[in-house]
Amino acid sequence: MRRRFVADPLLEVTGVSVRFGDFVALDHIDWRVDGPGVVGLIGLNGAGKTTLIRSVLGLQPVGAGEIRVPIGLGGLGYCPDTPGFEPWLTAREVLAQSRALGPVRHGDAWSADAALTAVDLERHGHRRTGGFSRGMLQRLGIAAALVRGPRLLILDEPTSALDPEGRAAVLALIRRLGTRMTVVFSSHLLADVEDLADRLLVLHRGQRAFAGATADFLAGHTAAPALRIALTGGRVIEAEPAGWGAALSDAAAHSGELEDIRLTRPTLTDAFFTAIGERP
């Protein structure tokens, strides 16, 4: 008989519950994280996202259940939504300080040069952080995690309050890092999550609403894409995928009357509100 070996996950959460008085922040959450890739953590305000992150990092005691980190807590990296550094420190000094906080996974650790290059701050290594923009500070916070050699990087609202340029830079960075390690990021910007995450954990009122592949979540909670063709005189042709050929043939026969052709695809936002049974 052939034996099947299953690799340990990077992180395994089993039956975890957290209460604050009468308020149940997490209610028997099960979650397994493997790698590499990008995992989106989504939910409304108060759903339990930050409580779960703090519990995984050992900052929040759990009332029930177990959190197992086979790679060790040293294998976890973390960047909060608003990383803050002493304004007189240079970027390189911040990274040196991060490395000095405790044992570093030397086999996986990034050098300061590599980390600064990865976050596009290589030209700013000797600048004091007091002059950094919000987006630069966010990327420096990620670099500070990278120099410790994490296998699992957790980012809490990494694009919150960033301008469009800073947001685009951080999202591009998450995409690149997801090819080398596992990145878990929480966000209220579901378009960002849909664009980056291959897996999801959806929390609602402290409970797990879904855990698995993003494609499976979309397929299970949205309708099929719809084709809508508008013609002059108010005539509209609408069709689901099976009828697209006939609809396009009909439109081609009246090409002189075409006003608009639009393909509507359900989004992660649509799937999310369907899954939790609420409206945006």
From TrEMBL:
Organism from which the protein derives: Nocardia yunnanensis
Family of the protein in this entry: Belongs to the ABC transporter superfamily.
PANTHER family found in the cross-reference section: ABC TRANSPORTER, ATP-BINDING PROTEIN
Keyword ATP-binding: yes
Sequence ranges assigned to domain ABC transporter in this UniProt record: 11-230
Annotated protein name in UniProt: ABC transporter ATP-binding protein
Keywords linked to the UniProt accession: ATP-binding, Nucleotide-binding, Transport
Listed GO MF terms: ATP binding; ATP hydrolysis activity
Gene3D superfamilies for the chain: P-loop containing nucleotide triphosphate hydrolases
InterPro entries the record matches: AAA+_ATPase, ABC_transporter-like_ATP-bd, P-loop_NTPase
Pfam name, any one: ABC_tran
